[in-house]
């Protein structure tokens, strides 16, 4: 499978085309809208989240609730578009209109793509950059991820993103019973955190940051259960599934790092404390006594849950201003505010869940036959039986 | 550019083909051999490093020291091949020979690709897996990275990998003067560490681990200087350069995480402490007061140094055994030893340097014209002037 | 650059996302609509061409008439959609509605994707196949090609598709003065043919076929002028530009062959009659005495016009029926009629022009720097001067 | 699967790396060498074919005759390399040596990549171009194709390339009994032609051309039998298998066109004469009364034999000289002779067979699961049963 997205933050719509989705997949707008809503919730989001109420339209590739095997096109319209038609319209404008419309943005915000993007693409008006570099684009990546989760769901594979840390407050009680429990609890949490005590402190930290006109980041974790062993491959450097997931996590706006299993802790442990011992029992097959490696060996799934974490920096849009330079006047200024979230980590956990779901669904479709959901199901079941009896 | 590698750990040779290298690049086996030697050094390596003395042969794409624009093929022969011809030969063998030769490996080592790889590809003899999943393959990735560094070097871009932490011992004094200083000092260090005091403790930790029949991991850092702003792009999720680098780092055997700039620390800081303020001065153009984001905004280089770190788990081959299960008898056993390094972190810093160099060189060649080094140089110089005067 | 399309023939819309378009390209819906209209004209088209009057909307990647460097999304709505919402809707339907709506198509038409597509994707209702396999999709490929032509136009490269043969009637007088003349004359022709006498006979052949309830195919030619030498490459099998163009031509619905320059005639000539001798003159540089190879040597442009032809089979939808088999009853039947064009060759010449334009524009953007039109222009001009003075 | 090749005509070796070959495939050098020998035979080849006697070495990815699932590396050494070490060595040479060694080639041959390649990559010595653009590279493409044929053979799919026309002499009697008959007869023919009478005339035409110091081209055909229906897809323009095969054929050195089934004849026929009527019978399933479309509908295999033809121009190396221009002196000259084949069409039919085999094997591996031959076999058999009972 492959997909492309298009669309600007204040343009008429976000669009995605997803190619290679197996025929027979059950897919409805309602399913996807649930995930879009999950992305829009979250303590600490600003006003725009209320305006948006994102709704997807499926405008290709699905008929009567079933994927045709054809490319699927997804559209999320911008409900506020009518206020932006002049500023963001595709058609040329007269020089008078230009006068009126084009309040050029010449003041790059630190931590955004503004300055470098303008240099790269030769824009003097940095709106031409920020409209696309905006995290608004993650809306449609969540839509694509929702589709991917639907594939996984039909194969009894579950993916959940949740929040581990916000602004230095770390969840301590993270011993969820199983992935359904993890989902149920975090789904109710305003910060998508399993630990109710930490949840409170996280919200306080968000309030505090807001009061200070500042922003905070955090750490999200994605857990995947139900995977067969052997997805991904060690045979070529670019076929390792953990590598692809790492790239996907860092491709999310504002993410600065990623780790699997015990992750960076591995630098401080002995080998005898890091690797997961192998057991076997009749009827179950091979299992591991632990899951420190986060579900991967040699770039392949081991059958244990995938556990991957990503770190999100505080969103760079700030009340508390940072110094920057106007590209026209070359005068220093303190950076302007485009929007007002003080913490986007809960939403980011949904985005992370989405991009991980995509990489895994994609690897599975590639590996188990690309055409039809029913055949993929059969092949996966065969693989599960095979590895159990190996 | 793109490349593929092939070859088994005890096969006749490792091979790489690198496609899309611009014509006119200066390239000699001697250059590449220097990097192969850097990979083989390092306190804590086992016996095989002595046997190997890897030497590259350039068997295509280069004539009289200059790249032709044609694909470049690199070969590193296995000096020990004569002892392995029967066990690893490509040609079919008779059933008698099979008797003699095929001591099947049926005991998977935890933390290796052995078990899962065997399940995936249907092998009962896990030698068929471990020969390819072995970190021996990084030899030829270093050769490819050396070629990439040559491209960067002609564009005045420097890449250095070094060691920050081994077995819980962290370098404290890491305030190198400049990247040349960093290279010079770490090149002399048996553990590729800039901090001489930490270096001592790291070697002790390695000795200690060895004595205990255990292994230790660590953290490596790669620094890149001299980059123009605007390499990579924010316009599509899969064109962000930091995402590609993250994927590359995690694709290295035994790497479990990656971070940029302040990385996971970003979860504990306010936005006002994280982003890099922008300054401007006549003749120099835009600079940043700090480099907490590690040289990236919006998936693009900012012009500041790239700073990326990866964590390597302790190598899973152990004297101190872990429990596993024989796939034929289903009997538990404690895992066997295939080789004897107790710490491969210094070598891994050279591999990390190599894969980062590749991603950057590749992004530059794509962006600045794919055919000729002289044109790329011109285009890069123009870009540097343009961004300075922006 | 890369693009994906989505959308069914009677679905709500066709969609394309085009990624990697250089910033600064001038692009308006009006430009693209002209090409959509060119595709819809043509003697021999059926009723649906009148209904459609295709109009593109640019819903991403363009602002005030200029490409932003971001992905461009193009939408062509189906004007007849309101009559198809039940039959083609994306949302699940109740079993009663199903009764009403789902007149399943169980009778595969020979020469269409119907039967094989149904087998591949597991559909019992072949509407699930034919809605996507329909040549309706070429609408949005023409839109993408129009964008590509805009890139070429800004680089002074011209592309024209025209008709050489229909139903056995071959244009004899094809000695156009220059490409502008070729465009001007064929643009006025109801069959897009340069030869006015042949034009008459072609229209008669179309009338005749229609009267007989039959259909006819033909040969189209695409000419490209103004190209610099050296686009494409011989260094790897998959980088030859003529190979890519051949693939693109055959990817058009109903195309069964492709040839360059003298093409299949080359099988009947001596080498001394086939190759194009090289000349040189001060100020002009290298030229060729002839252009039998159609503008390519070694998979690269020579600087001479590209001349490529494709053959289109008669469209398989027929009044004059062919025998087939109902997949439910297994009873033989004679194939039904879905639409009524008797000749689509003139339209196909516009599609061929579009896909050739795309391949060339793509190769140029890759080769001359991917970010900005102004830099590409500069690099192309430099290349032209360089090859002239070589 | 994917592959890259490297190596110059007079360099030490040709190399290929083939990635993604399913584990368990039976593969020996002997198998591949048979195909290399088939490429070297053929009436009309010059002296070098005798020198070469190409032999492949499998230096990675295969153990004891079975593919491991790992990348496979293939090497064909240049037996004449010892005479070329100075001229073609990879290492830098002193300026004195340069004097001695570098008889620069400054005279481009019409019809070769010489001139344009030199312009593109900035070479003044056109040896830097012709060494890679040489059809010598097809040796290793035949090796890769031989591997692909091995995959197909294990799935009971057969591929045969043969010669239809040379220098205007067309085979008339081409009614082979079945593909085994076609292979057996053409294998014995010095020009790989099924028609014994045409064979004689072809050889005479070759003799005649040689006598005149001229060269002749021809038409080759590739036939594939045993394919299941539904390989390839209509859902996206770049997934059509006929399109990929068309691109592959034109990527062969000196090929100028390609057609499927009745090909260009389709321009002269009515729709009722072109499409293949569908029949069905118990136990056999769907069949076609004819195969005018050459085995494809909607870019997918129909289950009928694939029939594809390519046209090869006369090889441009000539005794009978063509005019060209020295790039240093700008003096006209008549083109020199690098080698002396007067007809390479029989060899080209083996190359065409190889590249077609690759595209089909690749499409099958993608579609039916990428890891293991035994699973692919199972999935293919299931697909065959499914389509029979559809």
From TrEMBL, chains A, B, C, D:
Keywords: Amino-acid biosynthesis, Aromatic amino acid biosynthesis, FAD, Flavoprotein, FMN, Lyase, NADP. Its EC number is 4.2.3.5. It is an enzyme of class 4 (lyase). The keyword Ion transport does not apply. Pfam families: Chorismate_synt (PF01264). PROSITE patterns: CHORISMATE_SYNTHASE_1 (PS00787), CHORISMATE_SYNTHASE_2 (PS00788), CHORISMATE_SYNTHASE_3 (PS00789). Reduced FMN (FMNH(2)). It catalyses: 5-O-(1-carboxyvinyl)-3-phosphoshikimate = chorismate + phosphate. Pathway: Metabolic intermediate biosynthesis; chorismate biosynthesis; chorismate from D-erythrose 4-phosphate and phosphoenolpyruvate: step 7/7. Its cofactor is FMNH2. Gene3D superfamilies: Chorismate synthase AroC. NADP(+) binds at residues 39, 45. FMN binds at residues 132-134, 253-254, 298, 313-317, 339. InterPro entries: Chorismate_synth, Chorismate_synth_AroC_sf, Chorismate_synthase_CS. GO terms for molecular function: chorismate synthase activity. This reaction introduces a second double bond into the aromatic ring system. Homotetramer. PANTHER family: CHORISMATE SYNTHASE (PTHR21085). HAMAP family: Chorismate_synth (MF_00300). Belongs to the chorismate synthase family. This is Chorismate synthase. The lineage of its organism: Bacteria, Bacillati, Bacillota, Bacilli, Bacillales.
